Methylenetetrahydrofolate--tRNA-(uracil-5-)-methyltransferase TrmFO
Amino acid sequence: MTQTIHIVGGGLAGSEAAWQVAEAGHRAVIHEMRPVRGTEAHQTDSLAELVCSNSFRSDDPEGNAVGLLHQEMRSLGSLIMRAADANQVPAGGALAVDREGFAAAVTRALERHPNVTLVRGEVAGLPPEEWGPCIVATGPLTAPTLAEGIRDLTGAESLAFFDAIAPIVHRDSIDMDVAWFQSRYDKPGPGGSGADYLNCPMDRAQYDAFVAALVAGEKIGFKQWEGTPYFDGCLPIEVMAERGPETLRHGPMKPVGLTNPRDPQVKACAIVQLRQDNALGTLYNMVGFQTKLTYAEQVRIFRTIPGLERAEFARLGGLHRNTYLDSPRLLDATLRLKARPALRFAGQITGCEGYVESAAIGLMAGRFAVAEAAGDALEPLPQTTALGALIAHITGGHITSDPSAADGEAKAPRSFQPMNVNFGLFPPLAQAPRNETGRRLRGPEKAALKKRVLTDRARADLAAWMAGAQPADWRPAAAE
Ligand SMILES: Cc1cc2nc3c(=O)[nH]c(=O)nc-3n(C[C@H](O)[C@H](O)[C@H](O)COP(=O)(O)OP(=O)(O)OC[C@H]3O[C@@H](n4cnc5c(N)ncnc54)[C@H](O)[C@@H]3O)c2cc1C
């Protein structure tokens, strides 16, 4: 039976969700508030407007997680990828687009689709119950009345308006000859082991040089519309450093309650702590390291921390306006709001980040809605695929509680952080990959082979999922 599915927001996610719904034979009603009401960043009334860069990032499906996501979306009939491919501009290994041509192609395809109706106007407050199934894809700049409606329904802590992000590091790039596992005072907390943090020690000279680098480092200024710059618990690390040379070692870098097992007699001057960030244990965030340093400066300065000299960052730190849900707590595995299952969420408001990721979650929200309309349950996507890894991050892969944070430690008000797709979200390989001769590889050769094995596994599992078969047994083993 044909159903009508309302979609609030005609951005990257809403447009893709509407396309999936319409192509499956159901009716999609898109409610887009522009041009009746604008946002601080959008300039046009086009659907799927790109508000900043015109790049969809790497298009390499064998060596890059976002390139793999492109490939998966193409194979699932994505309108966003079709319009991007048709409006490509030269950009080396990246997929960049003519932004006007791209948005016009998406708008045209939806306006011409017989199953799509486009309504221009703000949905003020929660969508009315009589609409039935609805996908909310209103993005990082969700209009305030709707944001308030969501908060009233889910609780004040459930919707963030700022993204205060500390850098996140791939666990396998941390030098374990320097760092060690230990929670402060070995406290196990309610769900920890007493050894839940990775600790990187600094002596006095290293600490003084680090503080000086933070103070001198190049920073990004706040854009006018971003409103109140700092709020409790999210002070950027460089702002703390500017308050005095000792501030950090009495704050997030305090060296108390920790003993370096390699040098128990020596007291560190300061210690950087990293806390597990995903259930797989492949990603660690730098505790209390929210920052407005430029990305290049973050990489340069944070790699001076002992143990992080070769750190690979899954994402760098930042502080900007972003409306997003505490999704692991609020959404079920098919992106429905547990408190009101007729509402499904998609796009950046769910806690993914980036044009491609937002569209990808829109694609899956559309498919989940279609399956529900048909009375079917859509088989969960294997987490070994880029789409599945992203959904798992949003709906459950993330660590939501902080079992062993000691008093006074930089406790984030909530720990779920928006994320681009990256290989740290994928279940690790059961064994380190070997080349054709059976030799174990090292360095860049090993990294390249590992990515190829991960992406081959993803392609096989997506093909099996699409064919309706169970994916290959991918039960994650301990990190290699
Ligand atoms: C300033 C800025 C710069 C960015 N730069 C980049 C970048 O360079 N690269 C990148 O990959 N990502 C970037 N992002 C992130 C990017 O916005 C998102 O990744 C992507 O656009 C999110 O897609 P979405 O569909 O979730 O939201 P959007 O694309 O923002 O779409 C949401 C839509 O909902 C509409 N809407 C909101 N509230 C209502 C309402 N109540 N009723 C009806 N309609 C409503 C809005 O008008 C908008 O059209 C940036 C974000 C911002 C804010």
Observations:
- The domain at 167-316 is CATH 2.40.30.260 (Elongation Factor Tu (Ef-tu); domain 3).
- The two ends are 49 Å apart (CA to CA).
- The CA atoms of residues 181 and 267 lie 16 Å apart.
- Residues 8-14, 31-34, 39, 41-42, 51-53, 122-123, 137-143, 146, 347-349, 353-355, 358 surround flavin-adenine dinucleotide (CB under 6 Å).
